[in-house]
UniProtKB/TrEMBL annotation, chains A, B:
Keywords: Aminotransferase, Pyridoxal phosphate, Transferase
Domain Aminotransferase class I/classII large: 55-380
UniProt keyword annotation of Acetylation present: no
The organism of origin for this protein: Trinickia violacea
Record protein name field: PLP-dependent aminotransferase family protein
Amino acid sequence: MQFDISQRAQRLTSSAIREILKVTEDPSVISFAGGIPSPQTFPVGLMKEACARILDFAPHAALQYAPTEGYTPLREWIAERHGVTADRVLITTGSQQALDLLAKVLIDPGSRILVENPTYLGALQAFSLFEPILTPIECDGEGIVPGALTEETILGARFVYTMPNFQNPTGRRLPVSRRRQLVAAMKAANIVVIEDDPYGELDYSGEPLPTLLSMNPDGVVYLGSFSKIIAPGLRVGYAIAPMPLIKKLVQTKQASDLHTSGFAQRMVYEVLDTGFLDAHLSQIRALYMAQRGAMLASLASHCALSMSWNAPEGGMFLWARVPDSVDAVRLLEKSLAHENGSRVAFVPGAPFYAGKVDAHTLRLSFVTVPPARIEEGVAQLASTLAMLL
Amino acid sequence: MQFDISQRAQRLTSSAIREILKVTEDPSVISFAGGIPSPQTFPVGLMKEACARILDFAPHAALQYAPTEGYTPLREWIAERHGVTADRVLITTGSQQALDLLAKVLIDPGSRILVENPTYLGALQAFSLFEPILTPIECDGEGIVPGALTEETILGARFVYTMPNFQNPTGRRLPVSRRRQLVAAMKAANIVVIEDDPYGELDYSGEPLPTLLSMNPDGVVYLGSFSKIIAPGLRVGYAIAPMPLIKKLVQTKQASDLHTSGFAQRMVYEVLDTGFLDAHLSQIRALYMAQRGAMLASLASHCALSMSWNAPEGGMFLWARVPDSVDAVRLLEKSLAHENGSRVAFVPGAPFYAGKVDAHTLRLSFVTVPPARIEEGVAQLASTLAMLL
């Protein structure tokens, strides 16, 4: 049988990240590829208690169909944390679903949307299904360059998509002055800002910056997630949006999956309700800071002459660059082909670009591999790179 | 701020079902409206054990990011039950998500798709977001009329969407001869069949009919769900599709929510793996058969002169019709406005129609309300109807 596939689906291809994650299922690979939280941060004991409480005291409500908007106590918890009312909060099946819903509500075929360059690959995938025209905005090591937000560039765009805190893939953080400029420019041009913030709580600077949401609650859609601070396998995220948008997002979600697992939502809420989060976040931050330190130290001892990189103040990733003579995809292939020595995985930068590609960039995650293996992996990467130079 | 909403989202309106479900949150309402499983069928004890096992023996895997395709043992369980290979099985966030993914993969704006009339409202909502042209196929009390599948009607359609077992909303079942004719006609015209089968296991006839999938595995996409046989609040469903389609569905799902909650998938699998399902299904069937019997008996004693209805051999719903002088939406309003006597909810038939509407039809669910209250509700409905006649 011949299948008549939609135009949008014909354009879909397997993502590089996905293919790479398959290789890294082999535990002998040292993987700096995945944006995967360290499993030792999962609050397993609290979850066990949460499951027992839910099934003892509210089994029928937790296992029954539930309202599309989400579990009210969880929505209230989120609303309080962000200083908004709970009716602006929609629980989503991970942050990824919020991107899908926003695309459904805001993108017509041919709509122009503004993205950072490079930007989160999963957002490019979610948006591209709805056939927008992507306009990449010029970025530097601190994110969107305010001078690039010219009227010509932004006018008529449906939204700008940005990850101001410890961006995936670059790890960079948008300074507060640029945040204000971005929000003001978008407000003046009547363009919605989508602030994707999965890493905001993973701040190692001790000085978190104000959200874009706090700067213009009526013009910003904020996306949050419990994947990086509790556990990704529950698939619980959320969107905070102005009322006219939240209504459309709820209707769209109803058509997309009715609602997010009520059991998973209650697990998240029960765990949060123990008041453990602040202490838990301190532990996660300490762990990841140590791993970031190990990676920065290893890079300094092994790669100082052959690579450049940044030192992010939070999140999971740093962004590196190899010399112009080396393509990062080639480096990855070589790095995974080793027969002697460790195989090392990372994500080449190319698929994250929506505009001009820098093929010599790569994303290194420091959160999954313990410090001793970080050292081993970086040393191996340096020696593979040396062979290509 | 003005929001520039996509055309598809502008057309979205709140569904009648949804508004009605809000009213039925009040426990004093006798609700025949929801397609909501009886909570006494939820295997709470087995789930408690399942949660403990998962968190004792595989907490990190269950709580981590996981492959988009789904949890392998669950996919294998499903594959074995349907006589297919596991690589054809994709786990979805409820069946509803499978409708969304199929729409993404198969519908371009203006694509023609074939639907039963009336049909499942949630499918109409999922498909409509992708702006198809709906062609309703003529149906009678047994479902799609084979004679209506003329070349003129079906040619060039992207797919036909059908619920052959105990359809939502009508409760009707497609006879085996019609199944064969439908599958043959679609095969000849190279049109994909989407077989949505959430109620197939709720067969009270003792004689289940062969699936469309079994008649043409390379031309049928089968959608199944654990919502009606384990619990809807876990949001675990699945699609079985030919390989060229499954690959596109997986890519599309990755962009839509990465994967379905791995914890919820393992809960389903662990519960199934106890081997409880066959005995459990017998219990559910016995319970719902008794409730169906109570509703049929109540209708016969109170409504014989004012309504007609069918006697479905499975599922959750029966389909009724009031005289031409009464609009079912008006009856619902009246029925919920009572100050003396019980308020009774049901779903008027109108929103389920994709073509010609019969405004005098209504859907009655017999699974949520216990027999004694079924009698009370039907009696009250009959007296409300009498006032309008």
